[in-house]
Input
Amino acid sequence: MIITPLTVDRIPDLEKLLALGEPYIRLRGSSDYWLYATLFANTCPLAIIDGQVVGSVIAFRSQVDPSEIYLQDVMTHPSHRRQGVTRALVEEVHRQGALWGCRRLFLTSEPDNHVAHRAWLALGVQQRSRRHKRAGRVRDLRLQGAGETPRSV
Output
């Protein structure tokens, strides 16, 4: 498996992958993905196996608090789940965040997204009690030393 930043030429493959995540992942316009590849590639890694995009994270460093990174969309192709793809992608965002001195990764997930919940449990993430009406459950990940698995705070 190769973990590499999102590039413009991979946008069509990314869109096909993310479409598999509906209704929990809402496909955006190609111009949005162009912006992600151009401006946020360091926090938008792809997992490539045999030349195919099998996983992705779309994440952004906060402009309000640069010590935080928000993981917006995390997707692994259904045929590649439970093979370490999600872990490798989140660890790549974690590594980049550590280089920047970030202290927090966070994400939200819908209460009925059981696939996502199983993935977070496998990573050792525990749910915080906060809930946002529109965003679903909030999960916080503390940035530890490079190479360590992020865990909730």
The first helix runs from residue 11 to 19. The chain has four helices and seven strands. The beta strands are 2-5, 45-49, 52-61, 68-76, 104-109, 131-132, 136-142.
